[in-house]
Every structure is written in structure tokens, then in C-alpha cells.
Design brief:
heterodimer, A: alpha+beta, eleven-stranded mixed beta sheet, 19 helices, 32% helix, globular, B: mainly alpha, 15 helices, 76% helix
Chain lengths: 537, 338
């Protein structure tokens, strides 16, 4: 049945259509530039769970800490093997190597206006030990405990304090640990004013700010925005910009679009293809810095095949490092076959392995597995990890090793890894503080039982290497830096040969920025990505 | 008396629905191969700390005990603290919901405003050009992935043509000048008389809302078409024509009115779907709404947030179902209980 009568007035329809178009046009914004005094950064910061420096242990939050909190000393961002004083004016180590004395700069103030004294520094370090959150071990490894910390770390004057360790450690090790976020100084008066039931202000500081850094935290809305503002009470050079706003945007393509349009000034999580596509854009420049994070594949020694030394070695010959370097991690990483990232004391640039299927096959014959074997690998479904795993799978197949990939979400894969129920695992290994011991300590696995208390990477892969363990223990108390360096180099030579870890690459952090932005710095750690130095033309 | 019984029965059904909803979400959360403790202590905490936090959180207790503790907390109005944001879950949801509400409402207005007339038109001109177009529009709406369409929309209308603003709810310029009162930024801007901010919010809203509108339009127009075809084949239409009523009157007053009865359910379910949070749309447009909140929480095993979100989503479904039942009765007197 057909109808001839119009069911909708044509005129009404045309009017509706026209008004939609006009509305669309009428709203056309002028090319939305960001405000002149504000740096807008697109950044995936869904890892942030707290803003309390005694608890912060995640990448993005660490960057916020680095920009908003002062500490006694900082890394020299231009040469991370050196330290620069932050609020410390000077420091000395006693002859027995166990007492560290600090004198603070004078006239320091918190953003709240309260004066910053040695009492605040002592309180901050004590607080971290007393709260005992994830990063507390960075301090407690020097023998500080809930019971003794008030005696071991104390203010001796308005501007002086001492720190007493249980053993004579390498001084560089102790000082490097103090550059970590857990060494950030909080405003004792402000924090205690917000204390609830003796929690040392923990519940409050999770979402608030009590620091003295060049920028102050105005607001953090999880997965939405982190707003930093210039701290006018800062002792040093004031930040050129009034504001730094981080917007949580996960998609690389969305970040790129926003950057190209000028709606943001900086994109922080771009995939290699988006970076490559922007290389020809004159309005955008790319900055990069090698980071203290390495990526690896580990082999669980509970799997009898993977426990064979020949198989461990064979697998190292089945990664196409060159191809991965040229494509999957181009601009975002460099091939590295060692557990110490370049930049740390004792790091090595020796990379002996390359793709060699024949060599791998010969090793498999030696291992009594001439026809290969079947094995699984747990993988987080993000790039470039996924691409690398697939490439590894294909090469292993050529040697007869049949790898089944088990993809999963970050936390899911990690849960399995921590329970060491995997065969192979691909993941990342980051320095918790800027000292080689942070990465070298993985090997301490004196209790390899399933219910062991400490569960470092060696435990997670059921690997016991007492010789390496001895070397790590010796290195951390070695006060001669050159000797210390040598021990780490020797450790890595042995590690490359026999360990069940296939080291892949060191992360390079990349930021694409509008060309009118200058002065910011990507440092070697996530806490040394400095936005407070940025300015805009 | 009977009415009271009906209300009582209804209350029991709601309570049981909620309880079922909570139980299913809770137990799925607990058997998920993700350790919620990891969300709290971070990726690199020591084994000792993990064990300590597990005990603090009560994860070492039997599942039933954990569930009953949770229920008793919820009954006291305590949904716990979100691990991700360190805020009470209810505060988070109250902040995320207006973003989704604003987006979904505009989306459903577009969907209904265009979908119903198009569906009617297609039914009336069955087999004609409009009918074909509506079918193709529906098919595309069903088969094209929403994130792809969203990205394409951004590339075209935002990047190339500059008609609309990009991802996010509002430009940074206005971010700290507009004070949120209701959380509905359009309303907030209008109430404050900040018309440039209003335009900016609308400009951010229009693309994702159109996208959602398009998806609900695809469904609504198809359903409208089929309900209308059914009505137009009925005898009362023949009778109305015989009486000499105008076609416009027959279609809009008689046929559509009857077609509206089942259509109300379709629309309210579409709306509930949008309110639940259109996860992919919210991801592509960096829209800080409920969908994104629940997804992020799930990925991070932030179970308090997931459960809180589930209760809200459940309430939306129950509420809209109730509303569509009431409308049903208003529109079709035959379904009223005597």
C-alpha cells in the first residue's frame, strides 16, 4: 500500500536540517590554542592511586612528585651518575660510613607558607618508615624500622639533621635512595593538622598536597585531570608558567589529533607509527630520553624444559633484536641485553645475541630436544609488547619451539606472574631508585619455596644463583665506586650467559611537543621529567 | 488492599534483583584472575606487603563472610573507598554520572527525534527510497564499530572541518573558570550566564552525542518501522480511512499512538543502555563518565568501585523499566490492573 500524502512537511524537514548545519557552523571554534600561561599535556595516568609521597610508587605519580616536592638531593638530570643538592646546602658522611649529616638551605618555605625546617625532613622520612607502604623498603633497607626510626633519623638543629644506617653502605647508594619520591619532604604542621586516628595524615594526603616544590598540586581527578600550579613560595627559580595541566588521554591517535590541532601542547604516549607520521610536521618537535626501564622475557625454571641451560641459551638466539629495534621499538626503545639500563653505574652495552636459528637448533639437540617443545607465554595486550611476542613466537617456531601466547590485561598477567604459575612472561623491569642495586637486588632468592616472604624476580622464575647473590651483596657495601662498577659489570657478563632472562630493550621516553614550548626536561627517571622549567612563546 | 499487595510484591522483586546483582558481581569479581591487592600496593611491592594488605582487606576470610560484610556495609550506605581515586565510591559516581547523563540524554533526544519520524516514514513508504535509506542507516549503525566511527568523526568534523571541539568535556581555557554546580556542564554554564563556555561544552558534546544518537536511531527507527507496519495493517486503520480521516491524522494520531506502546520499552532500554555508559564512545572522546569509570575500575580490580557502579547501573535499569511500565499503562488502558 502506498500513500501519496506527504507524511512530514518538507518545509519542516528542510528547516530542521538547515538549523542543524547552522548550529554546527555557528559553533565552529577558532583554532583552539591553549592558554599562554598554561602547559597542557596529554598523558595516560591511569596508574595513579595516591598523591602521598610515602606511598607513590607508580610512573605517572612519580612525575607529579618530581615537579611538586623537594627532597634533600636530586639526580643531576643531565648526568644521572651525579647528584645535586636540592634543599640540602651540604652533606657529609662520618668516617665509619654510617652517619650522614645534612645542613639545609635557609629561608625555605612550604607552599602553605609554613617554614621548612630539619624537623619536617626528619618527620617525612620517619613517616615513610612508620606508614610502611610500597616504597618504604627504599629506606628500611638501611636498617630503619618502626621502632628505631625516630632515633636513627633526627633533627639536630633547626637546619641540621642526621641519618644513621645499620651498616656502612656505598655512600652513593644511600644518597641515590634519598632522591626517590619516598625522600620527598612534607609539611609536618599541615599533614598533622589533617591527621585522623593517628594515621599521620595518610588518608588526607592521598588526595591532597603538602609540599614545597616549584609547582603545587591543585587537583587530581583520577583518570581525568592533574592540575599543577606555580608555587610562589618556592625557594628557587620560579616556574615560568602559571599552570601545568595533565589530561588523561589513553589513545595514541587521539593524542596525536589533539596535538596537531594545538589543543594540547605535549603528547606523551604516542605509538611509533604516530610519531613517524608527525616527523614532517614543522609545528611539532620530538624530544626523547632513555629511561631506567628494561623489557625482558623470563623463563620459569619450574618448567623442566626451560630449566635446561641449553634451552635458556637457545631462546636468546631466537629473538630478532635487529628487526625489533628497527620497527617495533623505533624511537621508543633501544636494544639492550643487560639488566642494568644505560645511565646506571656499571651498565653494559655488550649485546652478544642476534637471531640465529641454526645455533638455537644445535643447542636444542644438545638439550635432548631435537624436535622442540610446547610452551606458553603470558603477555599484556599492549604495544610494542604484543608485536615483540608475536615476532618471538614466529622465530621460535622455526627452531621447532611451539609457543602459545596467553594474552591478558595488565593486572591479570601480573597476578599470574607473581604466583609464578606461568611458563614464560614478557614484562618490564624498572629501577625503583637511581642506583644499580635497585635492579641487582632481583637475584636475592635465599628462600625459593612457594611461600617465601620476599618474592623478587629470581623467585618469580624459580631461579637460584648464589654466586650472583654474593656479588650483589658485595657491590652494595663497596665504597670504592670503581670497584663497585666492576662487580656490576661482572654480574652482567654472567647474567647474559646463564640467566633465564632474555633481555630485550631499554625504554626511551618520547614526548611530541608544539614548537612554541621550550625548557622542559625529560630525565632518566620518571620523577625527573621536569615540567616546571617549561615555558611557551 | 490489592494495591498495597502489589507494591509489596514489587518491593520484594526489587530487593531480590539487587541482591542477585550484587552477588553475581561480587563473586565474579572474586574469581576474576586479577588480584585486587595489586591495585592497592602497586606492581612492585614486596611479597610481605602484599600479604599484609590482603589480611587488612579481609581477603583471607571465606567468600561468604566477605560478601556478608560487604552487604552490611552497603546497607549502611557505605560503598567503600575507590582504590583508583582514593575517594569514596559514591563521590566518584556522583561526579562521573552527570557527564554520562548529559551525553546520553542528548544522544537519546537525537535518537528518538530522528529515529521515530524516520521509522514512521519508512513504514508508510514501505519499499520506497526512504525505507531503503533507513534500512541502510540501520545496518551501518549496527555493523560499524563505534570507536572507528568516533575516530572518523573526530578526524572529519574536528580535525579537518573544525566544526566541533575535540575530545574531553570542555576546553582547558574554561576548565577552571566554570564552577560545577550540578555537574551538567551545559546547565552550569547557562546558570552562570557564561555563554562562551556553554558554546564550548555544546561543541564538545555534539559529536559524541550524535554518535550515540545515531546508534540508538538505527535501532529505534527499525523498531518503529516494524511496529508501524503492524499497526497500519490493522482493521481500525481501514475503518479510519473509510471514515475519511486525513492520512496525517491516521498515521500520527492513530497508528503511531498504538505503536508507541511497545516503542516506549525499546526507547527506555536504549536510554538505559546509553546511561550505563557507552564505554567505547567515552574512551575515544576521553569522556569522564560512568562507563569509563566502571571499565577502568574493572581493569584495575577496584572492586568497591565496580560494585558501586553496578548498583547504580542496576538502579537505572530498574528505574527505567518501572517508568516504561507506568507509561505503558498510561498509553494503553487495557494493561491497567483493575
Amino acid at each position: 500500500m502506498r500513500f501519496t500524502t506527504p507524511v512530514l512537511s518538507r518545509r519542516a524537514l528542510a528547516a530542521a536540517l538547515a538549523s542543524t548545519l547552522v548550529l554546527g557552523y555557528g559553533m565552529a571554534p577558532a583554532l583552539a590554542a591553549t592558554p599562554k600561561d598554561t602547559l597542557v599535556v596529554a598523558f595516560a595516568f591511569d596508574d595513579i592511586i595516591t598523591m602521598d609521597p610515602a606511598e607513590v610508587f607508580e610512573i605517572s605519580a612519580s612525575e607529579v612528585m618530581g615537579n611538586t616536592y623537594d627532597r634533600l638531593v636530586r639526580l643531576d638530570v643531565n648526568d644521572p651518575s651525579k647528584l645535586v643538592n636540592d634543599i640540602a646546602k651540604s652533606w657529609t658522611v662520618s668516617a665509619d660510613g654510617k652517619t650522614f649529616s645534612f645542613e639545609l638551605k635557609s629561608g625555605l618555605k612550604f607552599a602553605s607558607g609554613n617554614p621548612l625546617t630539619a624537623e619536617d625532613v626528619a618527620f617525612s622520612l620517619q613517616r615513610a618508615v612508620l606508614l610502611d607502604k610500597s616504597p618504604a623498603f627504599i629506606l628500611t633497607q638501611f636498617g630503619f624500622s618502626k621502632t628505631n626510626v625516630k632515633d636513627k633519623i633526627k633533627a639536630t638543629g633547626a637546619l641540621t639533621l642526621t641519618l644513621e644506617t645499620d651498616k656502612a653502605y656505598a655512600p652513593s647508594f644511600v644518597m641515590n635512595c634519598l632522591t626517590a619520591d619516598v625522600g620527598a619532604v612534607v609539611d609536618k604542621k599541615l599533614v598533622l593538622a589533617n591527621e585522623v586516628a593517628g594515621d599521620l595524615g595518610y588518608a588526607w594526603l592521598k588526595t591532597h598536597y603538602a609540599g614545597s616544590g616549584p609547582l603545587k598540586l591543585r587537583e587530581w581527578r583520577a583518570n581525568e585531570v592533574v592540575a599543577l600550579e606555580r608555587n610562589d613560595s618556592y625557594y628557587g627559580k620560579k616556574a615560568p608558567l602559571a599552570r601545568v595541566l595533565y589530561r588523561h588521554i589513553k589513545e595514541s591517535s587521539t593524542q596525536r589529533l589533539l596535538l596537531e590541532k594545538g589543543d594540547i601542547d605535549m603528547a606523551r604516549n604516542l605509538a611509533p607509527q604516530d610519531l613517524a607520521a608527525m616527523a614532517s610536521n614543522k609545528d611539532i618537535k620530538i624530544e626523547s630520553a632513555p629511561k631506567g626501564t628494561v623489557y625482558y622475557i623470563s623463563l620459569n625454571q619450574k618448567n623442566p624444559n626451560l630449566a635446561k641451560p641449553e634451552v635458556r641459551e637457545a631462546l636468546k638466539w631466537l629473538v630478532d633484536y635487529a628487526a625489533i629495534g628497527d620497527t617495533l621499538i623505533k624511537n621508543i626503545g633501544t636494544v639492550d641485553q643487560n639488566f642494568l639500563p644505560v645511565g646506571l653505574l656499571g651498565a653494559s652495552t655488550v649485546n652478544p645475541y642476534k637471531l640465529d636459528v641454526d645455533k638455537a637448533k644445535a643447542l636444542l639437540v644438545k638439550a635432548g630436544l631435537p624436535n622442540g617443545f610446547k610452551v606458553t607465554i603470558d603477555m599484556r595486550t599492549i604495544q610494542p609488547v604484543q608485536g615483540i611476542t608475536e615476532s618471538f613466537q614466529q622465530n621460535a617456531k622455526r627452531a621447532g619451539i611451539d609457543i602459545e601466547i596467553i594474552p591478558g590485561d595488565g593486572k591479570q598477567v601480573l597476578t599470574k606472574y607473581r604466583a609464578r604459575t606461568h611458563d614464560m612472561y614478557i614484562g618490564q623491569w624498572g629501577a625503583d631508585y637511581w642506583d644499580p642495586h635497585s635492579n641487582a637486588t632481583f637475584v636475592q632468592n635465599s628462600d625459593n619455596s612457594d611461600d617465601a616472604k620476599a618474592k623478587p624476580l629470581a623467585w618469580r622464575n624459580a631461579w637460584v644463583a648464589p654466586e650472583l647473590e654474593k656479588m650483589a651483596d658485595a657491590a652494595v657495601v663497596e665504597r670504592d665506586t670503581n670497584k663497585r662498577k666492576k662487580i656490576y659489570e661482572d654480574m652482567q657478563a654472567e647474567f647474559r650467559k646463564t640467566s633465564p632472562f632474555i633481555m630485550l630493550y631499554q625504554q626511551v621516553e618520547v614526548a611530541a611537543v608544539r614548537s612554541n614550548v621550550a625548557g622542559f626536561k625529560l630525565g632518566p627517571t620518571f620523577g625527573s621529567d621536569y615540567m616546571f622549567t617549561a615555558s611557551k612563546r | 488492599m490489592r494495591k498495597l499487595q502489589a507494591v509489596g510484591r514489587f518491593a520484594v522483586v526489587i530487593v531480590l534483583t539487587y541482591l542477585g546483582l550484587l552477588a553475581v558481581t561480587f563473586f565474579i569479581g572474586r574469581v576474576m584472575p586479577i588480584d585486587p591487592v595489586l591495585a592497592i600496593v602497586g606492581d612492585r611491592a614486596s611479597g610481605e606487603l602484599v600479604a599484609r594488605v590482603r589480611e587488612e582487606m579481609g581477603f583471607n576470610k571465606p567468600l561468604w563472610e566477605q560478601f556478608s560484610i560487604y552487604i552490611s556495609k552497603v546497607l549502611r550506605g557505605d560503598f567503600g573507598t575507590s582504590v583508583l581515586s582514593s575517594h569514596p565510591v559514591m563521590d566518584d559516581i556522583l561526579r562521573a554520572f552527570p557527564a554520562t547523563f548529559e551525553l546520553a540524554t542528548l544522544g537519546i533526544i537525537i535518537g528518538v527525534g530522528l529515529g521515530v519520524p524516520l521509522g514512521v516514514w519508512a513504514a508508510v513508504r514501505r519499499g520506497g527510497v526512504v525505507d531503503q535509506i533507513v534500512r541502510v542507516v540501520g545496518l551501518v549503525g549496527y555493523s560499524v564499530p563505534i570507536f572507528w566511527l568516533g575516530l572518523m568523526g573526530l578526524v572529519l568534523f574536528y580535525a579537518k572541518l573544525d566544526w566541533v571541539a575535540g575530545p574531553g568535556r570542555i576546553d582547558v581555557v574554561y576548565e577552571y573558570t566554570l564552577t560545577p554546580v550540578t555537574g551538567l556542564l551545559l546547565l552550569d554554564a547557562a546558570m552562570a550566564g557564561q555563554w562562551d563556555a556553554f558554546g564550548n561544552v555544546l561543541s564538545h558534546l555534539i559529536l559524541p552525542a550524535s554518535l550515540l544518537g545515531y546508534f540508538s536511531l538505527a535501532y529505534i527507527s527499525r523498531m518503529t518501522r516494524s511496529f508501524m507496519l503492524h499497526e497500519l495493517g490493522q482493521e481500525y486503520i481501514v475503518a479510519a480511512r473509510a471514515k475519511g480521516l486525513s492520512e496525517v491524522r491516521i498515521i500520527w494520531r492513530h497508528a503511531l499512538r498504538n505503536a508507541m506502546v511497545p516503542l516506549v520499552t525499546v526507547i527506555s532500554l536504549s536510554y538505559a543502555g546509553l546511561l550505563e555508559g557507552s564505554v567505547l564512545t567515552e574512551t575515544v572522546f576521553a569522556w569522564p563518565g560512568l562507563g569509563l569509570y566502571i571499565t577502568n575500575s574493572l581493569q584495575n580490580a577496584d572492586m568497591n568501585a565496580v560494585l558501586g557502579g553496578t548498583i547504580v547501573v542496576g538502579s537505572i535499569f530498574i528505574g527505567l523499566n518501572l517508568l516504561s511500565d507506568l507509561l505503558y499503562k498510561t498509553l494503553d488502558p487495557r494493561t491497567r490492573t483493575r
